[in-house]
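Need residues for this backbone.
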């Protein structure tokens, strides 16, 4: 009886291990593709840049990742690749900071006129931002975010109805971003299956 029980446990462990290996065999190449698309993104001259929000400090200052996105958006505007900039973010639940307003203030402090900035304080996630952009009917959009998030952001904008979409990402890498790469690699198929304009 004991041998049979042990045999059943070993058999279940083998099946579980095989399942994990199969999953990794599928997930790793997909993660590689998501990463490749992000780091090789080339912004195309467009009507608008959409800078996606992320966390700010308790004092209302952009954290490092957001500052990098803002610097990329600023670079695109100064190079004449975009005419307007939409800053889209949430009002954070813990500190009540308005990410989009903070982003707009950061850009205006660097001589971008308020008249070319669109503030979206209800971009609580990538999909909502995509819907908000699509309602504006821009002819073309460069989505500005971190490299691991480019592919899902581009897909969301196209799915929402924006026809010409390209991506721009800061040229920085941190080891912690591998977790976000995994998360976005899982989130994109979920978006494909669940999001409708």
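Answer:
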């Amino acid at each position: 009886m004991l041998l049979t029980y042990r045999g059943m446990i070993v058999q279940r462990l083998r099946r579980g291990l095989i399942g994990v290996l199969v999953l990794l065999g599928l997930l790793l190449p997909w993660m590689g593709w998501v990463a490749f698309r992000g780091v090789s993104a080339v912004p195309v001259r467009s009507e608008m840049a959409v800078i996606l929000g992320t966390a700010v400090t308790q004092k209302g200052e952009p954290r490092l990742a957001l500052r990098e996105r803002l610097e990329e958006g600023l670079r695109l505007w100064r190079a004449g690749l975009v005419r307007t900039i939409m800053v889209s973010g949430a009002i954070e639940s813990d500190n009540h900071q308005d990410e989009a307003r903070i982003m707009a203030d950061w850009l205006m402090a660097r001589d971008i006129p308020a008249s070319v900035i669109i503030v979206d304080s209800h971009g609580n996630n990538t999909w909502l931002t995509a819907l908000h952009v699509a309602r504006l009917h821009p002819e073309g959009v460069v989505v500005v975010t971190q490299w691991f998030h480019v592919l899902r952001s581009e897909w969301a904008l196209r799915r929402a109805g924006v026809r010409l979409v390209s991506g721009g990402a800061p040229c920085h890498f941190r080891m912690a971003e591998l977790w976000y790469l995994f998360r976005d690699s899982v989130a994109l198929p979920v978006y494909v299956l669940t999001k409708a304009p």
